Amino acid sequence: MGEASIPPSVIPIADLRYRAAVPVIPATPRPATGQLSDALGRPLRDLRISVTDRCNFRCSYCMPKEVFDRDYAFLPQTSLLSFEEITRLASLFVGHGVQKIRLTGGEPLLRRHLETLVSMLAELRTPDGRPLDLTLTTNGSLLARKAQALHDAGLRRVTVSLDALDDPIFRRMNDVDFPVADVLAGIDAALAVGLGPVKVNMVVKRGTNDGEIVPMARHFREHYGGRVVLRFIEYMDVGSTNGWRMDHVLPSAELIEQLGATFALEPLEAQVAGETAQRWRYLDGGGEIGVISSVTQAFCHDCNRARLSTEGRMYLCLFAHHGHDLRHLLRQAGASDAEVSGAIAEIWSGRSDRYSELRGRGMASASAGERKVEMHYIGG
Ligand code: SAM
To answer: What is the pTM of this model?
Structure first.
């Protein structure tokens, strides 16, 4: 597709594989103690791994069709980290304190034999011998087919993205005419095989699906007996292609007010530090919901997440411009585990990113000519 046919709200991309620094292997790599923290004292606890940059949906806020069209060059197979490479890196991250791994993408269930990777990651143990909290975020389209195999391989839980219950609205948002019923079937299959409680993520875009907030809340509280936790996500300015505007964001405070007019709610305490969602509970015992307010109430101060892109770049922030090319260390440099682990420690200990907080204060801006990394590549 030529640039002329791209709507003005969408920014074409020359190459989204951005720049990446080759990490420095320290002369004396520091040993992994499970206690690594960054320049702002934040530990490393959560690793999100993007297993593919491809997706079968074209949600306009994430992978708009006008950009990610038939001619878009996704990463070639040889660029992707192999399951062995992913597992090797994951085990080094675990040595530094990671306790939770989330597989994501793109659409992770498009990666062939993903259950094999799940079974490899399920073998990993934290330094004190505990299994990881191993989970996956999916659009749900292939979940009914794959839930059993994923569970048998050792997956603990899933998060399913669903932006509306109204079928025409949902089909419009995913932009590939995919029906709500099939995603709901995926959620039911996940619960049936023991992948519950299931989290359902709804990205709220003002003027597009904000009319779906109450119907979604009602549906998941009435039909699932607390086994589904619905989370409302503020539409974020991730990447450079979705034409993001602040007036499309529905602040969580407004959303809670809207929900509060129908259901009595009270806030809950966070369960663990670094939790992305603020939790609320229905006073009548109908379960809980979460709001993820990364635009209006940034939570950078306790962000303990690193991200590993499909081709093995480590990113320190969802809004980063640059990654750190760990794959280079594995493939070109032939680095030992101790060296790669030492390089990861150097990268994390120098981390001071807090994009969302700075954006909230009007201080965040892209450097000239640089693009923020896209969500489908870095993983949501
Ligand atoms: N394909 C999988 C899925 O649909 O869940 C995983 C990848 S997707 C990028 C992960 C999550 O990011 C989804 O819940 C998606 O709705 C959310 N997301 C994508 N772009 C977003 C944006 N601009 N703002 C907020 N959430 C976004």
So the answer is: 0.92
